[in-house]
Design goal:
The complex is a heterodimer of chains A (756) and B (490). In chain A, the strands form 3 sheets. Chain A has a 4-stranded mixed sheet, with helices on both faces. Chain A has a two-stranded antiparallel sheet with strand order 1-2. Among the domains of chain A are: 26 residues, no CATH class; 205 residues, Rossmann fold, CATH 3.40.50. By secondary structure, chain A is mainly alpha-helical. Chain A has 35 helices and 8 strands. In chain A, strand 7 and strand 8 form a beta hairpin. With 490 residues, chain B is an alpha+beta fold. A 7-stranded mixed sheet of chain B has the order 2-1-5-6-15-14-12, with helices on one face. In chain B, strands 18, 20, 21, 24 and 25 form a 5-stranded antiparallel sheet that branches. Chain B has a 5-stranded mixed sheet with strand order 19-27-26-22-23, with no helix packed on it. In chain B, a hairpin with a 7-residue loop joins strand 26 and strand 27. In chain B, helix 3 crosses helix 4. The N and C termini of chain B lie far apart (113 Å). The chains are: A mainly alpha (756), B alpha+beta (490). At the A-B interface, loops of A face helix 3, helix 4, strand 11, strand 26 and strand 27 of B.
């Protein structure tokens, strides 16, 4: 057919006619989706090409270690895993305190590939899992967008946006083996299934939604976002008077099955019925039963009686429910909102009450350029897309609106929640962009401005949507007549899209592809120089220390030490025990005489500090030091005081003017021990803080330097044993230095007699 | 035949043990002049390799001497070196008083301290008549043992002196042999009246005296590593014989604060003993007749026995506790009770045992805890969760096994089985065995149907399931309403 027509059609018309053919359309869509997925995967491989196939950052190291344990020991061992190499000496019930979804996914892929006789290293699976799932996320975004609009270009655009948006890439480059790697796919896909279930009122789709919700719960703590958003959507729908049996079926199916599924995860356990975060879902579940019951009653009794029944019944039940909730919370049966949740409402809350949360950089409020940095042009297409949703305003569009509202708020409060905003931005922006393109890329100019004409060009029926749109939002149909304006807008849009792609690639390549385990710098001649101090030091630990040597470091490095050096640590990035972290903070911020008994009690063999002064590496421990002080102060306000670490003028200094407490703190001593000897006299300099240091390096008595990496980024100290002849370390060290005591130092006061 | 061979082997092993202390038998004696050793020939002879000892004369070894291989050096000697290629050249050092102010480059305080840190033992004999070398003063200060100022002092007692030899100067003290410092301590320096060192508690029968001539006293700091072996009587004091003044205004120490023979045991169980009077080890004062103030009859001194006890303790011949083995295992039916597993579960029943021997002159004997004392096991993580008495269970010829069984507390983590038994005069026992204690695995909890509290819930589930099935059945099998009716309704 195409050939026959081709004879008398211009090539453009041929293409258009090809695009109209449903079969070729499907084929084209598949090809486009595959290309998008390929682009999504490809753009995430910068780090592998530039560095190597390596696990990035901090948390991924734990996930990697857990995956290795799972693959080596099997699922049940993993499920019951008691990890005695972290949180020494408390240990961690790791199997019961993690989200196993990620590891199990990798484990299944690993065993599947082994079964297919493809020998793949588990590390490569872990490294490449996030890019692989980003392809799936793009597809899920396509499906979700297709539920919103009839224009298929919107779905494809959404998939493309989702594939390359930096906001999502930031957490899913190759090597970023974190829960988010699979969780964003699950998030988008669960939302898609929810919309599907809601639209069809189908138990099957509802059950599928619950299934993927269960998978999501197994994968990421951010599942609470779904747990709150779906009931919110249902609640908004009911308030808009859109209660329907479809909603009832979809919601109850999802809630009942989804809650059961989530309770199978040991870490979640009974939280869905015991914490405030999960109460909205439970409340809406009950609310929907009530509404459904009322609907039934309304159909059964006369309207006047129904009125009184409604007021009394509804008011009474709502009051009772609220009272019950308050009572149970006060009685301790339902846990109140957790600190992390409070900090979502009040950004200053964490800083005052829970420094450990505030100390994490990704929990800081977002700076506004970050929105543009992560989303580029999508950020201005996004409101337009939301506006389009208002125009149609069906049940699913309400969802996008609710999601957009809450996603924006949370993304503004916490940097890392940009991730949950990104999908809805992609969807909304794609709706807007496709509307724009659909309008301006119309080949034919509209002859007559008529509603019918417009509808017929759209192809599918729009009647149902027409009826349900708000009257105020119903738009007059506008056609574009001149080729010039079409070409101008289409051209501008193309340029924007190209710039978007260019921006995404640039951001991905420059900002998000650094493994942070390996640092890259440029030599004067422009060639790349790799700074590999972390791995160097961890390798030293692995090869030169006893297998059960306990390493004390600030918690940021716990996972890396566990993963790369394979040594037990005191605290790590799973910050489950604030007191234990505060203990380490106290040891780091106290004098040696105070710190030594703490280290001794915790059987510490080595202390690891990160020092960037030589290289100008700003993410070092001295810059994090105030957080250690604050966290320690939270537990021991009498012994550690933040004020003492500042100069009398309130400055945080490390040079000769530093306060005495600062100079005597273990962290300061370990960081600057012997540092001045690197420089000619009087020129010792800290390049991070731009401070000139005193020539006299701090003296360490109870620790001895064991290792310092090439660029001094990692410094490892060995904790000395108790002195063999019972002296304190200061006396022993002074004897070692050759200060012999000639006479016993006369103490004032009466002679102390020895009593047996 | 085989039994004979094994007997011979056993005898060989026994004799090899017999001729050495538990810490080796290389002894270095440092004297001002090697010729001086004749003055101490009895004492050194007691220590030396027995004359009769020959490798094939297995059974007559250790009849007279205690089997030390003695080398003699002077402080000035070039060949004197306590270390060779970083290893100790000697196991024990015996230092007699020297006249020089310093001890030369081979015996600096650092070397002596390093020798202690390398588990070498030092017996230091000082004298009231020669000043103590300054390097010894400073090394003793590191141990918190203080000597009189100006490195010299003489202990006198106007009530307990020997009337035959020191009726004028009162500087030969006659002291009863020391009893235990505290009733719950093991003591090695009580002598039976015959003069043989006697570890058993026989405080009541102490009758002999020890002569302490021309000695210097020390005071000890508060540290737990120090303990006095022989304390001065309450009427004694120390003064500097070089000072001419009649009255002593700044007294160094007096009474029982003045320690005449002091013991120091480092954390690695290396021992240092300071004997205030070198003369008490000399031939002159071994078995001399002395007469106490106010007594008619003269008696023999027990210095020989006392010297044996002090040197024996210092050189690790007595008071050395050996941990033969430590074992812990699960004590539950139906579960493996393999030795020393790395991991336990909370609430497991566990048995811990430790086997201890004590070295006594030439052989290991079973270690017994003094009557008022306890050997304890600590089960600890950060702080002890249990502190349990270890009871003797099995006693063999050369060891006692102490053990205790208990239920692990309901706390998972990385725990230590810790035996921390440190007592004066006994070498330190510090045995730490780390185990992980895990939580209940998912299949180790009792099943829901054996918990009576769960029955209402199980019944609830049953009712719901049956009810739903029944509802479905009724729904499916009830006849649908006629079509006409339903249309009317709508």
């Amino acid at each position: 057919m195409a050939v026959a027509e081709g004879a008398r059609l211009t090539p453009v018309e041929l293409l258009v006619s090809l695009g109209r053919n449903p079969t070729t359309k499907t084929l084209l869509k598949i090809i486009i989706l595959v290309l998008i997925a390929t682009a999504a995967v490809a753009s995430r491989l910068f780090s592998v090409i530039r560095f190597e196939s390596i696990i990035h950052e901090f948390d991924p190291w734990f996930n990697f270690r857990a995956t290795k344990y799972l693959v080596a020991n099997g699922f049940y061992q993993f499920w019951d895993w008691f990890d005695d190499r972290t949180w020494h000496p408390l240990g961690r019930v790791t199997g019961g305190t993690l989200y196993p979804g990620l590891m199990v996914t990798s484990g299944v892929i690993y065993h599947l590939l082994r079964f297919l006789t493809v020998p793949v290293d588990i590390r490569n699976i872990c490294v490449l899992l996030a890019p692989a799932f980003s392809g799936l996320t793009a597809y899920a975004a396509y499906l979700l967008t297709n539920e919103m609009t009839t224009s298929s270009s919107a779905g494809l655009l959404a998939a493309a946006f989702m594939g390359i948006t930096p906001g999502y890439i930031s957490r899913s480059v190759a090597g970023s083996y974190d829960n988010e790697a699979i969780a964003i796919f699950l998030l988008v896909f669960t939302f898609y299934l929810w919309i599907k279930a809601l639209k069809l009122g189908s138990v099957l789709w509802g059950a599928l939604c619950a299934l993927f919700y269960g998978y999501m719960v197994a994968s990421w703590g951010g599942y609470a976002f779904i747990t709150c958003l779906v009931p919110l959507h249902a609640f908004v729908l009911v308030c808009m008077g859109r209660f329907s049996l479809r909603l009832y079926v979809a919601y109850t199916t999802w809630y009942a099955l989804g809650t059961l599924a989530s309770m199978q995860i040991p870490f979640v356990g009974f939280l869905p019925v015991r914490t405030s975060e999960h109460m909205p879902a439970l409340g809406i579940f009950g609310f929907l039963q009530l509404v459904a019951f009322l609907e039934y009653v309304r159909s059964a009794v006369p309207s006047r009686q129904f009125q009184t029944f409604l007021y009394i019944g509804l008011g009474g039940i709502f009051g009772a429910g609220l009272l019950g909730l308050v009572g149970l919370t006060a009685g301790g049966y339902i846990a109140p909102w957790s600190g992390r949740f409070y900090s979502l409402w009040d950004t200053g809350y964490a800083k005052i009450h829970i420094p450990i949360i505030a100390s994490v950089s990704e929990h800081q409020p977002t700076a506004w350029p970050a929105f543009f940095f992560d989303l580029n042009m999508l950020i201005w297409l996004f409101p337009a897309g939301v506006y389009m949703c208002f125009q149609k305003l069906e049940d699913e569009h309400v969802f996008i609106i609710v999601y957009a509202l809450f996603g924006s708020y949370f993304a503004g409060v916490m940097v890392r929640l940009m991730l949950t905003l990104t999908p809805v931005v992609c969807v909304a922006a794609a709706i807007a962009a496709s509307q724009l393109l659909d309008t301006y890329l119309q080949y034919k100019s509209p002859e007559v401005v008529d509603n019918k004409e417009e509808e017929s060009t759209d192809g599918t029926s729009k009647k149902s949507s027409k009826q349900s749109t708000l009257r105020s939002a119903s738009q007059p149909v506008v056609g574009i007549y001149t080729v010039l304006s079409k070409a101008f807008i289409a051209g501008a849009m193309t340029v924007f899209l190209l710039i978007f792609v260019q921006h995404c690639t640039w951001v991905t390549s420059n900002a998000y592809s650094s493994p942070s385990v390996v640092l890259a710098s440029r030599m004067p001649d422009g060639s790349q120089h790799i700074i590999d101090d972390y791995r160097e030091a961890y390798q030293w630990l692995r090869q030169n220390t006893k297998e059960d040597a306990k390493i004390m470091s600030w918690w940021d490095y716990g996972y890396q030490i566990g993963g790369m050096a394979d040594r037990p640590t005191l605290v790590d990035n799973n910050t489950w025990n604030n007191t234990h972290i505060a203990t380490v903070g106290k040891a780091m911020s106290s004098r040696e005489e105070v710190a030594y008994p703490i280290m001794r009690q915790h059987e510490v063999d080595y202390v690891l500090v990160v020092f960037g002064g030589l290289l100008g590496y700003s993410g070092d421990d001295i810059n994090k030091f105030l957080w250690m002080v604050r966290i320690a102060e939270g537990i021991w306000p009498d012994e550690v005081k933040e004020r003492d670490f500042f100069t009398p003028r309130g400055e945080y200094k490390v040079d000769a003017d530093a306060s005495e407490t600062m100079k005597n703190s273990l962290m300061y001593k370990m960081s600057y021990h012997n540092y001045a000897s690197l420089f000619p006299p009087g020129q010792a300099q800290d390049r991070v803080r731009g401070a000139r240091l005193p020539d006299q390096s701090p003296v360490l008595n109870s620790l001895e330097e064991a290792y310092t990496s090439e660029n001094w980024i990692i410094r490892i100290y060995k904790v000395k044993d108790l002195d063999n002849v019972g002296r304190d370390h200061a006396a022993a060290a002074s004897f070692e230095r050759g200060h012999k005591k000639k006479k016993a130092i006369k103490k004032r006061g009466p002679r102390v007699l020895r009593v047996e | 035949m085989r039994s004979l061979v094994s007997f011979l082997l056993l005898a060989l092993v026994a004799s090899v043990q017999a001729i050495s202390s538990s810490g080796g038998n290389r002894l270095l004696v440092i004297l001002e002049d090697v010729a001086e050793k004749d003055g101490y020939s009895k004492f050194l002879g007691d220590l030396e390799v027995p004359y009769l000892y020959k490798p094939h004369h297995l059974l007559i070894a250790s009849t007279t001497g205690r089997g030390f291989d003695i080398a003699y050096e002077t402080p000035k000697s070039e060949s004197l070196s306590l270390f060779h290629l970083g290893e100790r050249s000697y196991d024990h050092v015996l230092l007699f008083p020297t006249k020089a102010k310093g001890l030369g480059p081979n015996l600096t305080p650092n070397v002596l301290l390093e020798f202690i840190n390398a588990e070498g033992n030092i017996l230091l004999a000082l004298s009231g008549s020669t000043p103590v070398p300054s390097s010894l003063v400073s090394v003793l200060l590191e141990f918190d043992i203080h000597l009189p100022t100006d490195r010299q002092g003489l202990v006198v007692d106007h009530f307990n002196y020997d009337t035959t030899s020191a009726s004028e100067k009162h500087d030969v003290l006659l002291l009863p042999t020391p009893g235990p410092l505290r009733p719950d301590y093991k003591h090695f320096f009580s002598l039976s009246s015959s003069g043989a060192p006697d570890g058993r508690e026989r405080a009541g029968e102490r009758s002999g005296v020890v002569a302490f001539p021309n000695g210097i006293g020390q005071t000890l700091g508060q540290g737990p590593l120090l303990s006095p072996i022989l304390r001065a009587p309450s009427t004694s004091y120390s003064y500097n014989p070089k000072e001419e003044s009649e009255a002593v205004d700044d007294l160094f120490a007096s009474g029982s604060q003045l320690s005449l023979v002091s013991a120091f045991q480092a954390r690695n169980s290396a021992r240092l003993t300071v004997v205030g009077s070198a003369d008490m080890l000399s031939n002159t004062w071994f078995d001399t007749d002395v007469k106490k103030v106010g007594e008619k009859t003269s008696i023999k001194t027990l210095n020989r026995g006392f010297a044996k006890a002090v040197s024996g303790w210092t050189f690790g011949e007595i008071g050395v506790v050996r941990v033969n083995w430590v074992e812990h295992h699960l004590n539950e039916e139906g579960l493996s009770n393999a030795s020393n597993p790395k991991i336990y579960r909370i609430k497991n029943d566990v048995t811990y045992s430790v086997s201890l021997s004590e070295y006594s002159w030439d052989k290991y004997i079973p270690f017994t805890v003094p009557a008022n004392d306890e050997l304890q096991l600590e089960y600890s993580m950060l702080s002890p969760f249990n502190r349990l008495k270890l009871n003797p269970t099995i006693s063999s010829e050369d060891s006692t096994t102490y053990s205790v069984s208990f239920k692990l507390p309901d706390q998972h983590g990385i725990f230590n089985f810790l035996v921390n038994y440190k007592r004066p005069f006994l070498s330190n026992v510090f045995e730490k065995n780390t185990v992980s204690v895990r939580h209940f695995a998912h299949d180790e909890w009792p099943r829901s149907f054996v918990i009576s509290g769960a029955w209402p819930w199980i019944a609830g589930i049953g009712v719901t399931v049956t009810g739903w099935l029944a509802f479905c059945a009724v729904w499916l099998y009830s006849a649908p309403p006629a079509k006409g009716e339903s249309k009317k309704k709508q």
